[in-house]
Design brief:
transmembrane, transmembrane helix, DUF7982, alpha+beta, elongated, membrane, 47% helix
Length: 254
């Protein structure tokens, strides 16, 4: 049951109890009216759409963006894994080393480099790509109003484990509820690594180069969520399918 249905059902149940008790037991018309008001509000919540952006629109937007990025990666024959980085404007971008420079420059150099399609970062040529998952995280509102812990991270006051509840909620909401990419997710930590389980993946886009560089669409969206919440660089270092589950290992931090 999603959040809207749970809240709506709760209001209906609460309002029904209050109205019945007030009318038949204590004979209070004002309290009866209050109970009916709660019940009506619950009905309105149930019929109101939870998402202003339909799931089909989200999937279509993702698929179109992936197709365009796939063509660009093919043009440059890119094979190296991307590193996902948060930006000051609230979105996530990915830096991908070009074929001739497979190593990564310093993260701080990437952060302050000009965000052009092709950019030279401390002698390392690479592509700057805005992954489709970046817009999904913003559209979902999953991180809206969350506390920015960037300074605490820099000062060493916050560890990766401190983000576990927030990460689980954000990734689950974006992948399961908002985009319907999967039916369930699991998140575990081990030092600077995140082990992500994604069950029953529901999006299938033929983009081998995109998957090799940025990860599968659900893994890429999860990486965007992690980078957005932790404000740390994120790399997908392993991804494999095991039955109904897709296992993803992500490296977080510099």
């Amino acid at each position: 049951m999603n959040r809207f249905k749970a809240i709506g059902s709760g209001f209906i149940g609460f309002g029904g109890i209050i109205a019945s008790f007030s009318y038949f037991v204590i004979f209070s018309i004002p309290l009866t009216a209050l109970g009916l008001a709660f019940a009506i509000l619950g009905c309105v919540i149930l019929i109101f759409p939870e998402y202003l952006v339909p799931h089909q629109v989200v999937k279509g937007m993702i698929s179109g963006s992936i197709t365009n990025i796939e063509a660009m990666l093919e043009e440059f024959s890119v094979n190296q894994r991307a590193v996902y980085l948060p930006s000051k404007d609230g979105k996530i971008y990915a830096f991908v080393p070009l074929l001739g420079n497979p190593s990564y420059p310093e993260i701080r150099e990437i952060v302050y480099a000009p965000k052009r399609v092709i950019s030279n970062v401390d002698g390392h040529a690479g592509l700057f790509i805005y992954p489709p998952g970046s817009d999904v995280v913003v559209l979902s509102g999953a991180v809206a109003g969350q506390e920015d812990k960037t300074e605490q991270i820099r000062e060493g006051k916050v560890s990766l484990e401190d983000f576990l509840p927030q990460l689980e909620n954000t990734i689950s909401y974006c992948l399961v509820d908002f985009s319907e990419f999967a039916s369930k997710i699991r998140v575990n930590f081990d030092k600077n690594k995140i082990f992500l389980g994604i069950k029953n993946v529901k999006i299938d886009v033929e983009a081998p180069r995109f998957t090799r560089v940025l990860g599968s669409p659900p893994a890429s969206l999860a990486a965007c969520c992690i980078a957005q919440v932790t404000r740390m660089p994120v790399r997908i270092i392993e991804e494999k399918k095991e039955g109904k589950w897709v296992r993803v290992v992500l490296d977080v931090g510099e």
